[in-house]
């Protein structure tokens, strides 16, 4: 019988998860690349897309933590051969996500001007941000329901279905971006930034329809809502709440970075938009192995197989660091060409190129942090993840950013602060895991 922590089994989960994971940031990168090359007001439009993209990511990451929680619970019950115990939990979680998404839409869509003013956006950038967000916000219910279903898939040790949904969604987004942003003479008028928003909305709808098809056809679960609350729902929501707080702190760091970059000027926030979206792309790329750690780790915990849990941590860390070095090498070879994909403004490109090396240098540290992040989520260690992120954000990132700003380091300071942030996160996770699970392995 093949070991659950074999190279083949880890990559059976990780590789589709990588492809599925990069599809989401690829949508934002495509938007930025297409918008950044529109001749009229490209810098302002690029800045607006970056600000809104960061805010959307923040909200979705925060409220989609039920995806991680349901994945951990399903994988643990799968390892214990008790899937029947969570059959009513799945629809309750999915409907909860849907209801919560409507609340998020109602509390943000009508206050878009105030929200993006808090990012220091003004004038044309603020106007573009409002217009773009009003359309993109319609996708909250689509995305959050899709993510909950993806969590079920991952808990069942299957990331292939999510990969297929994400790839088709990304293809729809890319095709419609060019069609709606630039338009077709005599047929479709160019919609510029709004066209990119509608393209993203169509992609999200496509992914949801496909996810529902796989859910009904391939899983043992259903969407029939039981009025008897599953006893595990409280634990799931508590885990999600801890991850909610954790992700809120994470996105506070991203918000603070973008607010400072906006305050430095439109060229700085335009360059920061490119840097941040590339960083997120790398993060989701490496996160495929974290997803494998999440799914397999939860299953091993359910089976109380601590020996293989330790082996899992070593193997996926090695694979993820290797991926990080490959990404660094590729981007190092194409260092001067990458910025040109997103914008042609020489001032923006000069700022981007001067800072991009820091983003590359931190990738191996990111890989370790993301790996253990995924394993800890699968083990249900949400409270520790919450506390560590709060420490990293408010005792690491924020002081580093304030000190860097005082010395006028601008975007250099923002990314030095991110580097400090990731060092604290990775060190805290490795130390905790060794102390808690190494002794159980023997």
Can you describe what's shown?
It is a multi-pass membrane protein. Keywords: Antiport, Cell membrane, Ion transport, Membrane, Transmembrane, Transmembrane helix, Transport. This is Multidrug-efflux transporter. 83% of the residues lie in helices and 0% in strands. The chain has helices at 7-36, 42-63, 65-79, 89-108, 112-117, 123-136, 140-155, 160-182, 192-218, 233-264, 266-302, 306-333, 335-342, 346-361, 363-378, 382-406, 411-441. α2 crosses α6 and α10 (233-264) runs parallel beside α16.
| Low-pLDDT ranges | none
Beta-sheet strand percentage? under 5%
Mean pLDDT: 85
Largest sheet: none
Distance N to C terminus: 22 Å
Number of strands: 0
- Structural class assignment: mainly alpha
Note the run of SSEs as H and E: HHHHHHHHHHHHHHHHH
């Amino acid at each position: 019988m093949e070991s659950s922590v074999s190279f083949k089994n880890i990559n059976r989960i990780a590789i589709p998860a990588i492809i599925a994971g990069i599809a989401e940031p690829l949508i934002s990168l495509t938007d930025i690349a297409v918008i950044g090359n529109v001749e009229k007001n490209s810098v302002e439009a690029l800045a607006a897309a970056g600000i809104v993209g960061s805010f959307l990511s923040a909200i979705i990451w925060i409220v989609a933590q039920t995806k991680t929680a349901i994945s951990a619970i399903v994988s643990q019950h799968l390892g214990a051969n008790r899937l029947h115990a969570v059959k009513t939990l799945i629809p309750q979680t999915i409907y909860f996500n849907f209801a919560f998404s409507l609340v998020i839409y109602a509390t943000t869509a009508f206050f878009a001007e105030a929200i993006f003013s808090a990012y220091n956006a003004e004038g044309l950038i603020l106007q573009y941000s409002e217009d773009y967000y009003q359309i993109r916000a319609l996708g909250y219910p689509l995305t959050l329901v899709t993510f909950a279903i993806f969590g079920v898939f991952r808990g069942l040790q299957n990331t292939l279905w999510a990969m297929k949904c994400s790839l088709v969604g990304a293809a729809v987004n890319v095709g419609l971006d060019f069609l709606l942003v630039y338009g077709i003479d005599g047929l479709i008028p160019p919609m510029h930034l709004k066209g990119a928003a509608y393209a993203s909305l169509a992609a999200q709808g496509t992914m949801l329809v496909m996810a529902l098809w796989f859910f009904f056809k391939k899983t043992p679960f259903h969407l029939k809502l039981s009025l008897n609350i599953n006893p595990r729902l409280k634990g799931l929501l508590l885990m999600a709440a801890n991850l909610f707080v954790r992700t809120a702190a994470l996105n506070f760091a991203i918000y603070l970075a973008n607010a400072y970059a906006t305050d430095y000027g439109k060229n700085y926030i335009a360059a920061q938009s490119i840097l941040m979206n590339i960083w997120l792309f790398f993060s989701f790329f490496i996160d495929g192995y974290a997803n494998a750690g999440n799914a397999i780790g939860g299953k091993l915990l359910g089976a109380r197989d601590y020996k293989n849990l330790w082996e899992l941590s070593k193997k996926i860390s090695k694979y993820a660091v290797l991926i990080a070095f490959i990404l660094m090498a590729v981007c190092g070879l194409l260092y001067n060409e990458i910025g040109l994909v997103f914008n042609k403004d020489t001032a923006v490109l000069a700022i981007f190129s001067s800072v991009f090396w820091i983003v590359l240098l931190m990738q191996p540290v990111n890989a370790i942090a993301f790996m253990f992040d995924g394993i800890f989520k699968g083990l249900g260690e949400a409270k520790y993840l919450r506390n560590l992120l709060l420490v990293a954000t408010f005792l690491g990132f924020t002081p580093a950013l304030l000190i860097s700003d005082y010395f006028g380091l601008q975007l250099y300071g923002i990314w030095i602060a991110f580097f400090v942030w990731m060092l604290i996160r990775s060190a805290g996770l490795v130390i905790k895991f060794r102390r808690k699970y190494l002794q159980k392995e023997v």
